[in-house]
Structure prediction request, 367 residues.
Amino acid sequence: MLSKKVLGISGAMVVAMAATAAPVAAQEQDWTSFGNGNDTLEIVFINDGHVAPYHVAWLGGLEDAGAAYDEAFGNVQTSWLSAEGSLEKMIEQAETTINENPDVMFVNAIDTEAFVPLIEKAQGQGITWIAVHSPMEEADYSFTLGDDANGYHQGLAMCYLLDDGAQVGIMLGQAGNPSGDARHAGIMSGLAECEGQIEIIGEQPADWDTVKATSISENWYTQYPDLAAISGVTDAYMYPSIANAQSMGRDNVKFFGYDGDEPILQQMVDGNVMADILLSGTREGWNFVSMATNIAVGNAPEEQVYDFFTPLVLSAENYEAMLADGFPEDVPVYTVDDALDVAVNGFTEFGPCLLYTSDAADEGVEG
Prediction:
């Protein structure tokens, strides 16, 4: 399994520990020595949107985790803001938040360069700035998703699950967005492993917009009667693409997603979704609170870039067949049932626990 570092401990170890650990007993923490010096740990998340299914789960996970950590450790407060896709609004929200002086800011920057001066201002006030998805050297930490590797795994899955000559359309993110570009590059690298087997009929940006994804998928179904599959850099594109396929009688089209949205994972059980990447907004929201809390008590990540554990999701039947055909055994894979469990239950991996740093990792969970 690929190594993913989570608060100084491998992702696999954290999953194993969390799966066996009972909820910790309430133990009041003193937050006054961290950040702004107040007796409350204040965590703020500024996101680029709030209505997509992934965002809804993300923000819900953050709120649920905040409540759980507050109950376990006392005085933990979470809040979130949505820039609704506007760079100007996000900059204004970040400026206002800095003036309010929380302890930790997670910022999913629309344009990373625009936030460099704000990071310096925040850090000057003792605020810990965590860049979300797109790494930033200037930030205290960067919460990334391993997009290159994830995209590669999705592309590789298409090589093993689609027939020779299959026509595939790929929906991209917004041009210039580092996360979306990395996913695209990864997908193409994966498909290069079976060069000549897959015919790519289009690589079209949908700008993270479900309305654009609706139009693109409809056009592809109309123009390409033999279209075999649609790949996307976000599960948000899967919803309209699947709906259009059903309404247009294209029941043979397969889908390869990226996000781990619960409804799309369910489509792997009784639909045409063949593979997904397990991010899960719920998991990510819980992980934010876990990460911030551990930083506050001195259990910071070992490295500036924190790489979230994001395995490929496959059905057990397909995974077994792919391994028999030579699919690499070192690719991290969750079966659908396991993925659904952790995608829905953020507590499973990131419930209230204070992890020791790597020097004492073998001693397990504190509390």
